Amino acid sequence: MKTPVSRAREMFRSLRLTLVLSIVVPLMVFSGVAIYLGLGAVEQNLNERLREDLELVARAVSGPLSQAMSDGDEIVMGESLKSIFRIGRVFGASVFDEAGQHIASLGVADSDVTRSDSAERAIASGELDGAFRRVDGVSVFSQFTPLVAADGRIQGLLQVTRKRSDFHELVASSRIWAVSIWSVVSLMVILVVVLGHYGAVGRHVSRLLNIMGRMAPGHWQVDDMPAGPRELRQIHEGLQDMGARMTVAEKEIRESVEREQELSEQLKYQEKVAMIGRVAGGVAHELGAPLNVIQGRANILRRGDMAENDRRHLKDIEHQVERMTLIIQQLLDCFRHVPDSRRQTDLVATVRDLTSRIGEEPRCQGVEIRTDIPFDQAAILAEPTRLEMACLNIIRNACQAAQSRVTVSVLGHEGFWELRVDDDGPGITPSLRERIFEPFFSTRAAGEGTGLGLAVVGSVLKEHGGRVDIGSNPQGGCRMSTFWPVFGRSEHSKENHHEH
């Protein structure tokens, strides 16, 4: 059970009360004092200077002007107006009768004040009045002073105008005072906020932020001891509890994601194979007959007599028909899935057979094909036709990229046989190494490749549980390595478990 002292201590360590006492209250007090003193000083300074300057000028000449108006002495009236300009900085001065009609003026001032509210108020009340207005396109402050006759009757008005810009110095002076007061007050507030916040809250919040910054996948556990106000200690304890639960949840999620990824990849691959296989079968069925007809008609035409130019066009037609037929066949090969027909197959025998006859193909003519196969046998579980098709496409691709030489090797690894094909061509940039196995993607110019050869390789390796790696060889060309799972115990499977 908590004692009264402990309860009081907990209350005063409350985050809300701490913020109110250390930051909010001092900030409100000093801000209020600063606003009051600053605005009071600016307003008082401005009003005092404006009233004193204009009233002084107006009152100094109102007596002589009133007497001159009573006597009808225009000379004295003119001299009185001139004296206004000698007393202070005045933009203009005018004298009007009680009806607002212009009598005399000097400088820039109104010639008609019959519609001026300030003039009407000055005549009606007998008190000074004024307002900002524009005279001849210039913004001025207009001061109206009643001219009182000897019998107390208001017989006219004196208008004294002053440019608005003349007040700028006064406003600047007041602003300096206000800024000075605000600066001092702001400095005091900043000191209070910085010191109060750091001492009461800031250092503990920074500590919590540092702890949260360290919390990341694999590092959710919080071992630091709670400190600071009650609310912050509660947050710290919540972080500890959350870290413990996140550690458990992360492990479960990782295991679940790995399982889902495996299942998703298998499902996507099966769906893709099934869907595109159906499309490919439909395409082959729909296009096979028309292509056969075109090829047959071309054969008939070739038997007849025709000009050399027509024969060249006919040859182009036959070439394109053959190319379309090849594309259809490769598309079917790419997505034909035959897992039930796999059996024990010798990778070494397949590779040696291919390398012995592939030099007859047009794509490989002029390219030296070397072999480095130190094994007599490399048993894998495969569908022989699909295996041969994959190996053939890899070597063909290397022949097309090579300048003069292709090297075909078979190497042993723990659990895998590696078929490695090196060429002395320009190689494949890293950014394209993932895309070359996409259907219809080709680095060659349009018309020089279907983009399906390596897609067939990728499809065959997936259905056989293998993988493919793309890299560079010491000569700078491309190195394509395919890995096939070992089947059974080959007599040389334990030998040469290293890369050549």
From TrEMBL:
EC number from the UniProt entry: 2.7.13.3
Transmembrane segments: 17-39, 176-198
Gene3D superfamilies referenced in this protein's UniProt entry, alphabetically: 1.10.287.130, Histidine kinase-like ATPase, C-terminal domain (3.30.565.10)
Keyword terms: ATP-binding, Kinase, Membrane, Nucleotide-binding, Phosphoprotein, Transferase, Transmembrane, Transmembrane helix, Two-component regulatory system
Reactions the enzyme catalyzes: ATP + protein L-histidine = ADP + protein N-phospho-L-histidine
Annotated ranges, domain Histidine kinase: 282-488
Entry protein name: histidine kinase
One Pfam family per UniProt: HisKA
Keyword flag tRNA processing: no
Record keyword ATP-binding present: yes
Organism of this sequence: Marinobacter azerbaijanicus
SUPFAM superfamilies: ATPase domain of HSP90 chaperone/DNA topoisomerase II/histidine kinase (SSF55874), Homodimeric domain of signal transducing histidine kinase (SSF47384)
Record-level Gene Ontology MF annotations: ATP binding
